[in-house]
Specification:
The complex is a heterodimer. By secondary structure, chain A is α+β, with helices and mostly antiparallel strands. Chain A has two domains: 76 residues, Beta-grasp domain (Ubiquitin-like (UB roll), Roll), CATH 3.10.20; 70 residues, DNA polymerase, domain 1 (Orthogonal Bundle). Chain A is 34% helix and 16% strand. Chain A has a five-stranded mixed beta sheet with strand order 2-1-5-3-4, with helices on both faces. In chain A, helix 2 packs across helix 5 and helix 3 packs across helix 5. Chain B is α+β, with helices and mostly antiparallel strands. Among the domains of chain B are: 167 residues, 2-Layer Sandwich (Aldehyde Oxidoreductase, domain 4), CATH 3.30.365; 189 residues, Aldehyde Oxidoreductase, domain 4. Chain B is built from 20 helices and 31 strands. Chain B has an eight-stranded mixed beta sheet. A seven-stranded mixed beta sheet of chain B has the order 3-7-1-16-13-14-15. The two termini of chain B are 46 Å apart. The chains are: A alpha+beta, B alpha+beta. Chains A and B meet through helix 2, helix 3, helix 4 and helix 5 of A and helix 1, helix 4 and helix 18 of B.
Chain lengths: 159, 764
């Protein structure tokens, strides 16, 4: 077995140290090494978006990033979206708008939607659909997800 | 039977409810928007190790030998298993094992867990290894040497039915019209439904339309791959943690395949990341258990996406011929269907359901339906949201559209003229109870979408209607009243899309308490009675019914307690909205919460329970209207507007009912336009990734408008019919009809990908 590398990174604002094999993806590290299982594996090849995280300000599919690449970076996962016991407006909008059914894609959608609204506070329906086109949902048909993002945009502007 | 009057769109609407029909936040929602919900692959345990499965590279081959010695001695490998490590199958090989909407024989189930002497599809499990490190486990698979004798393969039903076709099972003899024959073939079963006199019906017809259709294999496409973790304890007890639609089915199938008592296995259902019918088979669970038995450690097996596409249970391709006769006035006189479905490697395709549903939208006096269950060298087919009905509706609803066009009758009016009603007999026997077929069609006809002008070149509007049987099954549930007035609900139904809440709401309605005061839990198989799986649109129907009964049980017990406190006869008391009171003395009154606080001093805990097997009277109809634009140069179809109309019986939580309609619509769009197993000549799936097996993304679809029709199911306490599946039935046909109206070509294949549309255009 290859020897492990010591990596220092920041996850959801906290400094984290971990050991990982060079071949382990960031997703695998988050889930199996650190225990943050909110990021999901649906395909392990970047096509489903269920493992979407923020990586130094950009959203990435964490299955296509190596764990060792996290060194010195700022990682944001679904576990860091709410502050304390208060849901982020995107989470509240998904929850109240019934924008999830089985919920396996939901963490990825919420991380991606929050990133969208932070850079485009008032997106059109098309902009929302374009931005979220790398996140697959098989349950909802996307209707309530798009509406939840629109609702979240309003909530964030009111906040 | 006389046809009763009906009120369009609402039957139960006269009944007012406090909780049913409202939209509370789902009980498990916060865990799912914060990433805390634990799905199968999220499970971990002390000492956890990982399993990996070696799969057949051939579609059809005899296994001559398996040499595991190198893998067994490799560094880091803790165990290797093959089918030989499982208990020997004897007479029980032919025993049936229930797996949700489909069932199978134990021998076939076992061969699908780990192949023994033959492999029948590419991706079939052959051996498995366990290691402390998942990468090491996967790498060790290449150390297992399997010697195969490759055999010719057959990939479609028509091919497999030919006299000279390669035979998959040497022992499989055709069941012909209910009789077991001695004929060895790939046709596991041929059955027939007959109603009236087909020849007479065809003679009475003035227009007869006949077409042949072929559809490709498609996958449910749930986002969470199959997974299972198992621990075989030293006392012989096995615990399985997995994401499944059928906790009890997987428990029982695992027990049968491992040769254990059912009580030796506890299945802990984890959150489930989609299933749509595809998560009833045990797959890795018994393998993980066997690896755990050898190693003494909990073993987790999670499929990769490629394994999931190649090695689970997609819904099958089909070959169908449909012939329908009609008078010039538009009255259907005769209908005939030939349905040949690919069962995959083992018998048990959904052709039975296809034959039940194929003409169920209509009242047709003379019908013959022939169904063929045909084994081919593809994965064993599984259920997929109204299994079999979507293929059948694609054929029939395309023919009906052609009839409407030939006769110059509006396609919805033609359907209304022939619609099935209460009292109509289906060709497979049952006489319809109260159904909502007409109401669905009227809601389509009256919808603004249907009346809106459609302008521009290469655009077309299509409609189609579909039927699904809807299931029921065993359901067990308890309600425990806590001392603060909250209620804990334990049920056995895996929650795949919000049914904890739709079930809790029905208990809350009966008890007269808010939905939020009920805490619904899906519990393990040791903690609740047998509950059939989350399939057949059944959970809100059957578990909701059980919740209704259990809540009434609680009510009766609370009245008994109040009678003790007040020292009055229980008969003088009644249960109002969330309170227990005397019928005569206004002083005697306790709220649910007040009485809950006095339970321990009046006899101990109150637990309401219900264990029932309700009749499945919830068959449902759905119809859709779709506007498409088709590029005449490329054949690419764009969905411009989409409306789904469905009879829910009663929508307990309308938001999640709408969600079912929208989700089914978009799966239908995917099935119609993109989704397909591309098979190589050797029988391998060539597009086993979510890049190449392309399900719709947000950019592919518009908003999905929904209309919920409520024609109460005649038996269910709240009129529920079940809403999960029928919405997937009409979309491909409606889209085909839209493409016809856009380009003037009748589509006879699924998917209607650009190449298929262009082929149809060039043939014209």
């Amino acid at each position: 077995m290859p020897s492990k590398t010591h990596v220092q990174t920041t996850i959801n604002g906290e400094q984290v140290d971990f050991l990982c094999e060079p071949r382990q993806s960031l997703l695998e590290v988050l889930r199996d090494v650190i225990g943050l299982t909110g990021s999901k594996e649906g395909c392990n090849d970047g096509n489903c978006g269920a493992c979407t995280v923020v990586f130094d300000g950009r959203i990435v599919t964490s299955c296509l990033v190596l764990g060792v690449e996290a060194a010195g970076k700022e990682i944001g996962t679904i576990e860091g979206v709410a502050s304390g016991s208060t849901l982020h407006p995107v989470q509240a909008a998904f929850l109240e708008g019934a924008a999830l059914q089985c919920g396996i894609c939901t963490p990825g959608f919420i991380v991606a939607s929050k990133a969208l609204l932070e850079q485009n506070p008032n997106p059109t329906e098309h902009e929302i659909r374009f931005w979220l086109a790398n996140n697959l949902c098989r349950c909802t048909g996307y209707d309530k997800i798009v509406r939840a993002v629109q609702d979240a945009a309003v909530r964030m502007q009111e906040a | 039977m006389a046809i009763k009057d009906y009120e369009p769109n609402m039957v139960l609407a006269t009944k007012k409810f406090d909780v049913v029909g409202t939209r509370p936040v789902r009980h498990d929602g916060t865990d799912k928007v914060t990433g805390r919900a634990q799905y199968g692959a999220d499970f971990t345990a002390t000492g956890l190790i990982y399993g990996a499965i070696l799969r057949s590279p051939h579609a059809h081959a005899r296994i001559k030998s398996i040499d595991t010695s190198k893998a067994k001695s490799a560094a880091g490998i803790l165990a290797v298993v093959t089918a030989k490590d499982f208990p020997k199958l004897t007479a029980s090989r032919d025993e049936y094992v229930q797996l949700g909407e489909l069932n199978t024989r134990l021998g076939y189930l076992r061969d699908n867990i780990l192949a023994d002497d033959k492999v029948l599809y590419k991706g079939q499990p052959v051996a498995a290894v366990a290691a402390a490190n998942a990468h090491v486990a996967h790498e060790a698979l290449s150390l297992i040497k399997v010697e195969y004798e490759v055999l010719p393969s057959v990939l479609t039903a028509p091919e497999a039915m030919k006299g000279n076709a390669a035979i998959l099972h040497d022992h499989l003899k055709t069941e012909e019209l209910g009789e077991q024959t001695d004929k060895v073939s790939n046709v596991a079963q041929h059955f027939q439904h007959v109603l009236g006199d087909l020849e007479k019906g065809l003679a009475d017809a003035e227009v007869v339309i006949e077409r042949e259709f072929n559809t490709a294999t498609v996958h449910q496409g749930y986002i969470e791959p199959h997974n299972a973790t198992a621990f075989w304890n030293k006392d012989g007890k096995v615990t399985i943690w997995c994401s499944t639609q059928g906790p009890f089915e997987v428990r029982d199938a695992s027990a049968a395949s491992l040769g254990l008592d059912i009580a030796s296995i506890k299945l802990v259902p984890m959150e489930i990341g989609g299933g749509f019918g595809g998560k009833f088979e045990p797959f890795g669970a018994p393998v993980a258990a066997m690896l755990s038995k050898i190693t003494g450690k909990p073993v987790k097996i999670v499929m990769t996406r490629a394994e999931d596409l190649q090695g689970t249970g997609p819904t099958p391709g089909s070959n169908m011929k449909v012939k329908m006769g009609v008078t010039k006035n538009g009255k259907f006189t005769a209908a005939q269907a030939h349905l040949a479905f690919e069962a995959g490697a083992f018998p048990g395709s959904p052709v039975g359901a296809a034959a039940m549903t194929v003409f169920a939208v209509y009242d047709i006096p003379n019908v013959v339906v022939d169904g063929y269950d045909v084994v081919v060298n593809k994965p064993k087919s599984g259920a997929y949201r109204a299994p079999g009905a979507t293929q059948a509706a694609f054929a029939v609803e395309t023919v009906v559209d052609e009839i409407a066009e030939k006769l110059g009758i509006d396609p919805i009016e033609l359907r209304l003229m022939n619609a099935a009603k209460e009292g109509t007999r289906r060709a497979d026997g049952p006489v319809n109870p109260r159904i909502g077929c007409v109401e669905v069609m009227e809601a389509m006809r009256d919808h603004p979408h249907y009346k809106a002008p459609l302008e521009g070149k290469n655009k077309g509007r299509g409609v189609a209607v579909g039927f699904w049987i809807n299931g029921a099954g065993e359901s067990a549930l308890t309600l425990r009243v806590n001392s603060d007035g909250s209620v804990t609900l334990s049920e056995g139904s895996a929650d795949i899309g919000g049914t904890r809440t739709s079930v809790a709401m029905q208990a809350a309605e009966v008890l007269g308490v808010p939905a939020e005061s009920i805490s619904p839990q899906v519990v393990d198989t040791d903690s609740v009675g047998y509950t059939s799986g989350t399939g057949g649109s059944s959970v809100t129907f059957k578990a909701g019914w059980a919740a209704y009964e259990a809540a009434n049980d609680v009510k009766a017990q609370l009245i008994e307690r109040a009678s003790k406190i007040w020292e009055v006869d229980a008969g003088t008391l009644e249960y109002g909205k969330g309170e227990i009171k005397s019928k005569s003395d206004p002083e005697l009154k306790l709220t649910f919460k007040e009485l809950a606080g006095q339970l321990n001093s009046t006899g101990g805990p109150v637990v309401g329970s219900s264990n029932l097997m309700p009749p499945a009277i919830g068959g449902a109809y759905a119809g859709c209207i779709v506007d498409v634009e088709v590029d005449p140069d490329t054949g690419k179809t764009t969905i411009e507007r989409f409306t789904m109309v469905q009879d829910a019986g009663k929508a307990i939580h309308p938001s999640y009912v709408e969600g079912q309609l929208q989700g089914g619509s978009v799966q239908g769009i995917g099935w119609a336009l993109n989704e397909e197993y591309y098979m190589s000549d050797e029988g391998g799936m060539m597009n086993s990734s979510l890049l190449d097996y392309r399900i719709p993304v947000s950019l592919d679809v518009p908003m999905i408008d929904t209309v919920i029709v409520e024609v109460a199911s005649p038996t269910h306490p709240f009129g529920v019919r079940g809403v999960g599946e029928v919405n997937l039935v009409p979309p491909p046909a409606a889209i085909a009809n839209g493409i016809y109206r856009a380009l003037g070509v009748r589509m006879e294949v699924l998917p209607m990908k650009p190449a298929s549309v262009m082929e149809a255009v060039w043939k014209k």
